[in-house]
Specification:
alpha+beta; 205 residues; 434 Repressor (Amino-terminal Domain); 30% helix
Length: 205
């Protein structure tokens, strides 16, 4: 289980539950639910936890990845049938995330194939996380919000944006499928985790 691997990594580093929660900018109760399998972290949350632990996000998924490569120069070939589906219940219904490089543990990017079903999407929900994001539409079409702007994307269109801005796809009539690549340099992830921890500490002071 993902939650168990987060707990194992935390304990191996000598961190208490409240230590990791503070670093990542979450409450102790929310982190406890994740570790105990009572909450499924969205990709943005997983990236923040990985940054707070100083590991690659795939390190937390490695048991599911099957033969993950530690070699940062390894070439990873992933066939369609070998794509790893990432549980992302916190994103809400209507989303399917398939990891395109889960077996490569050490990497600067996290590529996914994401399908969004319009009938199930919460149109009030947006996402934010450290770093930058690139998306490329491979099927369907969607409105895609980034900050205060909304873009109409069709097959073949792409966006590259600052992922710290609120963003989300809103398909209208048919499902949309797009490649999404998340990228945040370790230093940027660490700064984001530190700022979140400082904000939590300030709110509790």
């Amino acid at each position: 289980m993902l939650g168990a691997r987060i707990r194992q990594t935390r304990i191996a580093q000598g961190l208490r539950l409240e230590d990791l929660a503070s670093r990542a900018g979450f409450t102790k109760g929310f982190l406890s639910k994740i570790e105990n399998g009572k909450a499924s972290p969205p990709i943005a949350t997983l990236l923040k936890l990985a940054a707070a632990l100083g590991v690659d996000a795939t390190d937390l998924l490695q048991d599911d990845a099957g033969g993950a490569h530690d070699d940062p120069h390894a070439t990873v070939h992933v066939r369609p049938e070998d794509r790893l589906e990432i549980a992302n219940a916190a994103a809400g219904p209507g989303y399917q995330y398939l990891s395109l490089a889960a077996r490569r543990r050490l990497k600067m990017m996290e590529p996914f194939l994401i399908t969004v079903r319009p009938e199930d999407v919460d149109r009030e929900k947006t996402f934010q996380h450290p770093g930058e994001e690139f998306i490329f539409v491979v099927a369907g079409e969607t409105e895609y919000r980034v900050g205060d702007e909304t873009y109409h994307l069709k097959q073949g269109d792409s966006l590259y944006f600052d992922a710290s801005k609120p963003h989300a796809p809103y398909p209208k009539d048919v499902p949309v499928t797009f490649v999404a690549i998340f990228c945040a340099p370790p230093a940027q992830q660490a700064r984001a985790a530190r700022r979140a921890a400082e904000a939590v500490a300030a709110s509790e002071a």
